[in-house]
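sorry for the late reply, my laptop died twice this morning and i had to redo everyting from scratch. anyway the thing you sent over, i finally got around to it. pasting the sequence first so we're on the same page, its 382 residues, then the predicted structure underneath. double check i copied it right bc i was rushing
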Amino acid sequence: MDANTPLTSGNSPRPVVVELRLSAFKSHRGAAFPLGPLTLFTGASGSGKSSALQAYEALARLAAGEELAAVFPDPAACVPERAEADRQGRRGFRIGCTVDGPAGPVRLDLAVQAEPELRVVGERLTAGGQTLLTTALRDPSRSSVQAAWHTAGAASVTRAPLPDDRLGTALLPLRVAGKTQGQLRVLAAAEQVVVALRSVFVCDPQPQLMRRPVDPRESRLRRGCDNLAAVLHRTRRQCARRHARLAAAARAGCAGEVADLAVDELDDGTVRALLARGDAGAATPLGRLGEGELRFLGLALVLLTGPGVLAVEQAAEVPSALQSLTVLADGLDRCLDARQRSELISLGAEMCARGHIRLVGAVGDASAARGAAGVTVVDLVP
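ok and here's the structure:
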């Protein structure tokens, strides 16, 4: 899909990212990727699968208000290879996305200078062919960019400086009064983008950490799923239906007979997770499972839960019914065998079809997903 191709609005009640653009980012140049409810990036090593997910995560963190330096600790690594500096020695990268929702398709494009110093040098927010916000670096000696946003009042445009180390779109709700139709449109577009982007949970289960007993009070699942036992301890007591679905997933993805997922409370106050076997009293601690089984369980738990269980901060001012959580999972099929891969993609497709969760993952093998309903496969070439 070409970056300039207009997207048709689905008038989604929940703001969702429907396209990721990597105009100039790491190995990508002029790339635009469509994103569906479940999107899988696939390709050989070095094709840019991880880079695509890193760009998405970067936009999410910027939308949440983080500073550039925290989001891009090594900005030079984001500059495309062989990109030459201009006469002032400047090099940078460009990323963006399109968010569909009640305000229609809204495009966000961001240009970042990586060298000689990290800063935003340009940002554009557009909707319906109209530019709602632009920023530009006018004076390199100042730590700000000149912003102009649509007003449609006595003055058609409002101009003011914005910090050059943050995403201007995320700051607009604090700067725009919302007194005119033009201002209201700017606010609606900006808020739609921010809500869609910040509703992201990055997941990468770490089997070596998942084997340890944990404090049961740490019951919001972290990105490494290392506190999975604490989350199981909570869900077993609070949501029998969700726990039953997870136990069913364990039966599909783990070796041997699995009757249930249990939690053992240890003498030191910590808890560990167990696979209850068919024989009375027989159980296998999760610490004894293989890496593929542990990663499968962690990812299945993420797909079957929601923001209240995951360590993600969504927009508190927006009702949860109007938000859609997006899970980013690099190496989604890492360590999984063909059966586990197929079961996980099937579970992901089912949960994404319900509309409350979206999944963007990178896989080495997408054969189990090709042709599946609701699954978008993006093939990358090095």
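The mean pLDDT is 89.
thats about all i looked at so far, will dig more tmrw
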